[in-house]
């Protein structure tokens, strides 16, 4: 099964729930691409030797990599980190994540500022463009293991919304207007 994404409801219920509209309003890979979100499906069982992953890293210039396990028994300050990840924010660099095990959600804003929930499962690699407002949460399984990829040295700084005056945000918004 490929990547699944949908427009979210506005419920304040547990962030780990799917939050689908009723009826569901799916979002296609093409619609995500229009927002600058790109996706690959890889074989996470061979991530250490996967030639397809190596080619993507080479083509995109992803020179830095580390692995994070997000689970209450594995991640120091687990609750605090989950709250931080779920705050709406942007980065000045692309965010690249490859799910090696478990499941999670990335939420991104569309051109009309509506939330789109992207369900990430083992083998899903996604890139979120610099300047896109987004957030991250686990699903109800409360576990994921992910590879974090960067061009050059990692920059861990997130800028919470509002950050509309940042150059990278203005460039991102201009790129959306250019694609209309």
UniProtKB/TrEMBL annotation:
Compartments where located: Cytoplasm; Nucleus; Cell membrane
GO CC annotation, single: nucleus
Biological processes per GO annotation: L-methionine salvage from methylthioadenosine
Ribonucleoprotein in keyword set: no
Cofactor(s) for this UniProt protein: Fe(2+); Ni(2+)
Residues that hold Ni(2+) according to the record: 89, 91, 95, 134
Sites where the protein binds Fe(2+): 89, 91, 95, 134
InterPro entries tied to this protein: ARD, ARD_euk, RmlC-like_jellyroll, RmlC_Cupin_sf
Catalysed reactions, semicolon-separated: 1,2-dihydroxy-5-(methylsulfanyl)pent-1-en-3-one + O2 = 4-methylsulfanyl-2-oxobutanoate + formate + 2 H(+); 1,2-dihydroxy-5-(methylsulfanyl)pent-1-en-3-one + O2 = 3-(methylsulfanyl)propanoate + CO + formate + 2 H(+)
Major localisation: cytoplasm
Keywords per UniProt: Amino-acid biosynthesis, Cell membrane, Cytoplasm, Dioxygenase, Iron, Membrane, Metal-binding, Methionine biosynthesis, Nickel, Nucleus, Oxidoreductase
Membrane topology: Peripheral membrane protein
Enzyme class: oxidoreductase
Catalytic activity, EC: 1.13.11.53, 1.13.11.54
Cofactor binding remark: Binds either 1 Fe or Ni cation per monomer. Iron-binding promotes an acireductone dioxygenase reaction producing 2-keto-4-methylthiobutyrate, while nickel-binding promotes an acireductone dioxygenase reaction producing 3-(methylsulfanyl)propanoate.
Disordered, as annotated region: 1-25
GO molecular function: acireductone dioxygenase (Ni2+-requiring) activity; acireductone dioxygenase [iron(II)-requiring] activity; iron ion binding; nickel cation binding
The protein's annotated pathway: Amino-acid biosynthesis; L-methionine biosynthesis via salvage pathway; L-methionine from S-methyl-5-thio-alpha-D-ribose 1-phosphate: step 5/6
Top-rank lineage group of the source organism: Eukaryota
Physiological role: Catalyzes 2 different reactions between oxygen and the acireductone 1,2-dihydroxy-3-keto-5-methylthiopentene (DHK-MTPene) depending upon the metal bound in the active site. Fe-containing acireductone dioxygenase (Fe-ARD) produces formate and 2-keto-4-methylthiobutyrate (KMTB), the alpha-ketoacid precursor of methionine in the methionine recycle pathway. Ni-containing acireductone dioxygenase (Ni-ARD) produces methylthiopropionate, carbon monoxide and formate, and does not lie on the methionine recycle pathway.
UniProt similarity note: Belongs to the acireductone dioxygenase (ARD) family.
HAMAP family: Salvage_MtnD_euk
Quaternary structure note: Monomer.
Entry protein name: Acireductone dioxygenase
Taxonomic source organism: Seriola lalandi dorsalis
Gene: ADI1
